[in-house]
Amino acid sequence: MPDTTPTGLTRLAFGGDYNPEQWPETVWHEDVRLMREAGVTMVSVGIFSWALLEPSPGEFDFGWLDRLLDLLHENGIRVGLGTPTVAPPAWFYREHPDALPVTADGTRYEFGSRGAICHSNTDYRSAAAAITTQLATRYGDHPALALWHVHNEYGVPVSACYCESCAAHFRRRLVATYGTVEQLNEAWGTAFWGQRYTDFAQINPPRVTPTAGNPTQALDYKRFTDATIRENFVRERDILHRLSPGVPVTTNFMTALSQCDSIDYWAWGREVDLVTNDHYLITDGRRTHVNLAMAADITRSVAGGAPWLLLEHSTSGVNWQPRNPAKAPGQMARNSLGHVARGSDGAMFFQWRQSRRGAEKFHSAMLPHGGTDTRVWREVVELGAAVDSLSAIRGTRTQADVAVLWDWQSWWAQNLQWRPSEDHDPRERADAFYEALYDRHLTVDFAHPEADLSAYPLVVVPALYLMTEAAGNNLREYVENGGTLVVSYFSGIVDEHDAVHEGPHPGALRDVLGLTVEEFSPLLKDERIRITGPDGSELSGDVWSEFVVPRGAETVWTYADGLAAGHPAITRHRLGEGSAWYVSTRLDVHGLDVLLGWAADDARIAPRADLPHDVEVVRRTGESGTFLFVINHSALDAKVPLEAHGTELLTGERAAGHLGVPAGAVRVVRLDG
Q1: Which one of 49, 219, 330, 343 is CB 3.0 to 4.6 Å from 300, fit for a cystine?
Q2: Domain locations along the chain
Q3: Which among 236, 312, 435, 616 is annotated as catalytic?
Q4: Whether the Cβ atoms of residue 159 and residue 262 lie closer than 8 Å to each other
């Protein structure tokens, strides 16, 4: 069986995408010398090199790659070798123009970017398998090889194709899923609007229609698209396993909820040997370090809690946002070590040397246009030394306090057409609840709704519109056995076919919540409502309200105005040994903090008021010890209490009682014992 860590890598991974084909070979030796100066331990190579490796059909040129891998090996640098199947050559598209994807309105994309692939196309599949076989045969036992990196960022920028090849492939999947067209009609609700089918041959992808199409058809097409892309990964992975046994195979995910919404990472996490992730800050004025922590926690959760690897992030600014600010001094280290704190066994970047040409020439790199006499380079060298000093944490696991339930398929369903309010954004609710937990200094695991939740005293459901009966039963058992559950509005409404659960809302959750919802009452734009608590306190909500009827739940806060005035707004249901909270409006930051404070008390989670705001405290533990990461994102020096003595690994100083962390700095304490 393949290993789950990069082969031959005894330290944390530090390095980035290396694209030497953009430079004369005379530059390579300078690159390697500087990599050693920076403490680079691994680079990703060959991701976009198909056109160089196979310059014409069936004719291969591996000489340059031979020389490169040998040079890296001679200098002690491990290699994550890419299969370049994200960017087929121009000659391939010339011969197979139907491998270019088609949009829902019938437009076929052109060659000239990246990721323009119809994943159902048999010619693409054959060509991808052929180049992967060639690479695995030649380099499967190369002494520099640490990792196979298949494709690149599946689903970005194109996931779905609507061509005739995809239509035929979709029909085959539907036959395998439903068996008969009668069962498909039942699942899709085709009696509505006269959409009934009498033969699978009548079914097409959900292309452009005059008004809203069938939502279950659209949901199944998203599942089909994800599964089809995953089939191609598995095909390449299996070739690599066969020809390069023992070397782990991965592909770089993009789990940040804002960056890729077409991939079901719960399913993908089961297929890779090592979970890896790319993360780039969305600099829209929000607290970017919170989204970074969230992305890292999601990635670790997809990995089942095991160590994972940050395969790409940026040293400074990126190039693809409307405005691309540079990172502040020290921010690169905080970003990198924030991922490490939350489970990454290293910090890799895109890319090593900043490009002079092409679409990403203004994307920052480890070695910038300005060379070694730059702030970025000096910070890279400092970070390399810091990462090296943390080698003892390799293989340890991050410890979480609470769980947040998330399901990509529910997100897909929620975002289909014609929902009660376009202002309800499930990702926004996930972000908001996560930020509230972060500000209470609670480390979060994400979990699938049907996962075992028994290890968590508190489970939060920010937005799960689609929920199976099995998931509902799972949450009921969790609460009955002593867990504390918090559920936000418009959750548990439909089943896996986007059909409303039989009976009153909230369907799959009404038993555990001890209530029913007679009617949704979304609010108008900028409309706000007040809710009052048992002590006369007042909270504020917007976007949503509901007519809630308790069926065993107690009313804790009540609507003070709006159409639902006098009705319950927030309830608590004591069930078995636990309790389930429900909030039927969109609370603001203060309201979420109050709600989660009550729920944390139910869960017997002690408040952590002694920890400063925007000072992140995360723990990793394993056979090598317990490591406390403290990351100060604030502009003030901070002091954090320590429960035991220890050694601070970045400075070598002893720490006892309290740990001082300067503004903008990171400290990592290896606790004694």
Answers
A1: 343
A2: 13-162+214-392, 165-202, 402-602, 615-671
A3: 312
A4: yes
Q: Report, in this order, helix, strand and coil percent for the chain, each rounded to 5.
A: 35, 20, 45
Task: Return d(Cα 659, Cα 656) in angstroms, integer.
Answer: 7
Mean pLDDT of 538-542: 97
For domain 13-162+214-392, the CATH architecture is Alpha-Beta Barrel (3.20)
CA-closest candidate to residue 585, choices 615, 628, 542, 553: 542
Whether the model clears a pTM of 0.85, i.e. scores above it, the answer is yes
Distances (CA, A) of 614 to 79, 375, 441, 588, 656: 36, 25, 9, 19, 22
30 is catalytic: no
| Cα–Cα distance list, 23 to 26, 27, 39 (Å) | 8, 6, 22
Q: Which residues contact 164 (CB under 8 A, 6 or more apart)?
A: none
How far are the Cα atoms of 207, 387, 629 from residue 279, in angstroms, in the given order? 32, 18, 20
The CATH class of the 615-671 domain is: mainly beta
The CB density around residue 417, as the number of other CB atoms within 10 Å, is: 11
Q: How many CB atoms lie within 10 A of CB 661?
A: 23
CB neighbours of 286 closer than 8 A, spacing ≥ 6?
Answer: none
Active-site option among 54, 59, 74, 153: 153
Tens digits of per-residue pLDDT, 104-149?
999 999 999 999 999 999 999 999 999 999 999 999 999 999 999 9
